[in-house]
Specification:
Elements lengths: L4 H15 L3 H10 L15 H16 L5 H13 L4 H12 L2 H15 L5 H20 L6 H23 L4 H9 L2 H6 L3 H13 L5 H11 L4 E3 L2 E3 L2 H8 L3 H16 L5 H14 L2 H10 L1 H4 L2
Antiparallel strand pairs: 1-2
Helix pairs in contact: 3-4, 5-16, 6-8, 7-8, 8-9, 11-12, 14-15, 14-16
Length: 300
């Protein structure tokens, strides 16, 4: 006698339910549906909103804009595919820092701090003004002013080109900030030697100079021999070189980074460790990257 599949299935089911006739059957079914190595991802508890917010912060802080939808989706996918690891964050940040926009934003924020947000168009306009004044003077036979005009033009050219050179790695972070002190616009903002020294201390070190620092700084800027931060100098150029290469210069950069990225002051320990690290590497973008990879900045 042949039985239909339906009858066989019903019999098997009743046997299992009422008599427990085949214990191994239920065990086999359970075993077959178990997924091996089913470990929860390391980013359990991190929401899509947190990841989205992190990528938005990176774009705004580094490129001065929000990401496009394609950029946002690509960033989210990349971080998730790599388990939200530090190395994945590092790669994503590095990709943004490789873009020209990063260096333009870096110029804009530095310009806002030092020279009242002067942009490239304003720099070019001032160059044309000086060239015109020189031309008019030369027509009047005042060629003796050429040295002064050329001095101002050279400083403006250096400021105009500083973003490109920093992007190419042909200037250091020290030379980068020196260009923001040594130009026509900074002299206009901080007129006179005393204001120049006070302004540079405020902009670089986030503090006012002591009485002796102010006296020695002014003496040096006025082309007289003086000692500042245990270094000798007798010119404005010497002064700028000293204040953009000493220990406090790096401390000021750490203060700047914590304020801009974490929106708080660095603790004493963070300031000490960060300054030592930055002074050793002389790599400000790398220091920014360390903060932007942190749990405090990312939120995870």
């Amino acid at each position: 006698m042949r039985f239909s599949p339906l009858i066989l299935f019903a019999g098997l089911l009743s046997c299992s339910v009422w008599f427990g006739c085949d214990k191994n059957l239920t065990e086999d079914i359970h075993i077959d549906t178990t997924i091996s190595n089913n470990e929860p991802p390391p980013y359990t508890g991190v929401s899509a909103v947190q990841i989205t917010n992190y990528i938005n912060k990176l774009y705004i802080d580094l490129l001065g804009r929000a990401p496009g939808q394609a950029e946002l989706s690509a960033g989210i996918d990349y971080l998730i595919d790599h388990d939200l690891s530090d190395s994945a964050k590092d790669t994503l940040i590095a990709q943004l820092m490789d873009q020209k926009e990063y260096y333009k934003v870096f110029f804009s924020t530095t310009s806002a701090d030092f020279i009242n947000a002067v942009d490239s168009a304003t720099i070019d306009y001032q160059i044309q003004i000086i060239k015109l004044i020189y031309y008019v003077d030369s027509l009047d036979g005042n060629s003796g002013n050429f040295i002064y005009y050329q001095y101002e033009l050279n400083r403006l050219y250096r400021l105009q080109d500083i973003t490109h050179h920093f992007m190419m790695g042909s200037v250091t972070i020290n030379e980068y900030f020196a260009a923001f002190l040594d130009n026509y616009f900074y002299d206009q903002v901080n007129m006179g030697s005393e204001n120049f020294v006070k302004g540079s201390f405020s902009d670089l070190f986030r503090r006012i100079p002591t009485e002796s620092e102010l006296t020695n700084g002014v003496t040096m800027v006025d082309n007289n021999p003086a000692l500042l931060f245990m270094k000798d100098g007798d010119s404005k150029g010497d002064y700028i070189s000293i204040v953009t290469t000493n220990h406090e210069f790096y401390e000021g950069l750490v203060i700047k980074a914590y304020s801009q990225l974490l929106l708080r002051d660095a603790t004493s320990q963070e300031l000490t460790i960060g300054t030592s690290s930055l002074e050793l590497s002389n790599d400000y973008p790398a220091f920014q990257k360390q903060l932007m990879k942190s749990i405090e900045y990312a939120g995870f």
